[in-house]
Write a structure and sequence with these properties.
Radius of gyration of chain A: 19 Å
Distance between the termini of chain A: 15 Å
Structural class of chain A: alpha+beta
CATH superfamily of the largest domain in chain A: Winged helix-like DNA-binding domain superfamily/Winged helix DNA-binding domain
Number of domains of chain A: 2
Helix content of chain A: 25-40%
Oligomer: homodimer
Largest sheet of chain A: 3 strands, mixed
CATH class of the largest domain in chain A: Mainly Alpha
DNA sequence: CTAACTGCAAAGTGTTTGCACTCTT
DNA sequence: AAGAGTGCAAACACTTTGCAGTTAG
């Protein structure tokens, strides 16, 4: 069962697991709690370090397994669909991306297809902006046909 | 020497290499040519397959080495700054990202800090859009101080 | 001629998997 | 009890590196 991908608090994990048909193990609970506490888009290894302080016997594989489970059930998201393999950009024109989250295909969308991106607030001072990149995420035609 | 990151045509590679202080080898030329011909945000392995048809003795390591060189000199770009390691998203609120391309740090920017993203053209039919994600790319305060 | 580049194999990362054991339900 | 989850080690996929031989400038 797939929950809506909105993100959840650790307090609700019992209920979330029930809905998703997942067992609520101690490890799973602590992994989720720590994950939710970490501000900075953590990598699996960093989650592992945190959780190990509470459950020293925990295995890194369990962290990976649980992260995968969480993502599959929509409890958390990955920042980028394209970790795992380097993908190269050879389109010299300013453009954005149409990304299928299922097959990972990336199509270019010309920058001129968009109204200019405007911010209401200013960027944190000291950060020098090079460019804006918009990703339009969803499921492509081909993939939605496939079931 | 660092060229502007605008993308270049294969025809100019001789000049680009000269400016960057790079040797223009046959392998390098063919890798660049093929790369520029490939439409679909290729992975290194795919570039390798293409180039091998023209230079069967080519090694995959050479493809990787050259891609790295091209990226470092701004001749091509990587699609995502965060290939290499999974990064997790635990912020349940709709938001965008401020990404430092040097240290790879990701900060959240609330969706409400932006004017709504609007498109002039419509998305290719059949693609069902789930969400828009904006990445504001640049160099953070800390990194710009560091040299 | 010299510095840069290539090919190969070996070493490194980050991630997944098979299996026996344990825990949740 | 039965099925799901854990820990471990081994396997994998992707990428980098060291080194000897080759090539560009």
């Amino acid at each position: 069962m797939k929950a809506a991908s909105q993100g959840y608090s650790a307090a609700n994990l019992r209920e979330l697991c029930r809905l998703a048909g997942l067992s609520l193990t101690h490890q799973r609970l602590v992994i989720f709690e720590e994950l939710m506490k970490m501000g900075d888009h953590p990598a699996p290894e960093e989650v592992y370090e945190k959780v190990r302080k509470k459950i020293p016997s925990l295995s890194l594989a369990t962290v990976y397994n649980n992260i995968k489970t969480f993502v599959e059930h929509g409890l958390i998201r990955e920042v980028s669909v394209h970790h795992g393999s380097l993908r190269l950009e050879n389109n010299p024109h300013p453009h954005h991306h149409l990304v299928c989250t299922r097959c990972k295909r990336i199509e270019d969308l010309d920058e001129s297809d968009f109204e200019p991106i405007r911010m209401k607030k200013s960027i944190p001072s000291g950060f020098s902006v090079h460019r804006f990149s918009v990703e339009v995420l969803g499921i492509c035609k081909r993939c939605s046909k496939q079931n």
